[in-house]
Amino acid sequence: MGATISLRAVVIHNRPHRDQDAIVTMLSHKHGLLKVMVPGAKKHSSRLAPLATPPLLGDFVLSESKGFYYLKEGDAVESFKGLYSSFEALTAASHILEVVQDTVVDTESAQVIYPLLLYVLYDLSTHAEKYRQIVAAFEWRLMDALGFGFDLHDCDCGKPNEMPTYAFSFTKCRLFCSNVACVAKAQDYRFVSSGCVEALRYIRDAKLERLSAFHAADYVLDDLSAVTHRYLCERLEKNYDKMSIIDSLPPV
Ligand SMILES: [Zn+2]
Questions:
Q1: Exposed, middle or buried: residue 146 (CB in 10 Å: 0-12, 13-18, 19+)?
Q2: What's the gap in Å between 72 CA and the centre of ligand 1?
Q3: How far is CA 86 from the centre of its chain?
Q4: 106-127 pLDDT, tens per residue?
Q5: Residue that finishes a domain, picked among 78, 97, 112
Q6: Ligand 1 centroid vs 48 CA: distance in angstroms?
Q7: Which residues surround ligand 1, an ion (CB under 5 A)?
Q8: What is the mean pLDDT of residues 201-206?
Q9: How many angstroms is it from 22 CA to the middle of ligand 1?
């Protein structure tokens, strides 16, 4: 075996490999995404198996051989247990992990996305009931981090009307007021409440540990989730549909 490296990382994906093994994807602050072979991960007796289940934050020791990484040992730091008591929070976490796996492309993006991911996983595991605003906050903040920032200034027509409604333009990546001439310029848009715009501005500027610490009425959350999700899917050119399973469940 070659060199060993020690690192703290989040396990974000696991796929079976051959009969007994698994290949996990880890995200670390310094190294970005790493694919790591976990020998024997499918055996019940394996001491490594509990470390191979996403999402899990751990301290790991890897060995490198011929360009492949192998998990030698590790300790769980945080297993986000609270997620497992809420179907919604677990689904939200799996959506977030999928997006992270697609968007960490280099060590630079890892440095921004790693702390965001840790915070939102922790938030979801301790405030499962806030899953909708946590997901929206994650999606919106990620877009900013990836350089897909949206202009949240008021309409520049000089005569924004007093309606509490904005046109969120997916075409122009900015807001328009609800004057007829302005809405026409917005092209592909969704009307959103001023509460939604306030929440978007809050999320853009908030400290990570306060990211979801805002109050939003249900109709505001509906707007917020709709625009952040569609904006994300359009910019990343992928239909992220894991969350739709929650909407398809009968009301409790
Ligand atoms: Zn206007």
A1: middle
A2: 60
A3: 17
A4: 999 999 999 999 999 999 999 9
A5: 78
A6: 58
A7: 155, 157, 160, 177, 179, 182
A8: 97
A9: 55
Does 177 reside within a domain?
Answer: no
Q: What distance in angstroms lies between residue 164's CA and the mean position of ligand 1's atoms?
A: 12
Task: Tell whether 64 and 124 lie within a shared domain.
Answer: no
Confirm if 133 and 115 have CB atoms less than 8 A apart.
no
Q: Decide: pTM greater than 0.70.
A: yes
The predicted pLDDT at position 164 comes to 84
Q: How close is the Cα of 86 to the center of ligand 1, in Å?
A: 42
Separation between Cα atoms, residue 49 and residue 39, nearest integer Å: 9
Q: Across the chain, what does the average pLDDT equal?
A: 94
Q: How far is the CA of 226 from the centre of ligand 1 (A)?
A: 22
| Gap between the Cα atoms of 143 and 150, Å rounded | 8
Element (DSSP H or E) covering residue 90? helix 87-103
> Which of 70, 63, 61, 57 lies closest to 23 in space, CA to CA?
70
Q: Report the amino acid identity of residue 232.
A: L
Encoded amino acid at 31, one letter: H
Ligand 1 centroid–CA 227 distance in Å is 19
- Pairing state between β 68-78 and 32-38: parallel
State the distance from the centre of ligand 1 to the C-alpha of 199, rounded, in angstroms: 20
Residue 50: φ, ψ to 5°: -65, -20
Does residue 154 fall inside a structural domain?
Answer: no
How far, in Å, is the centroid of ligand 1 from the Cα of 163? 11
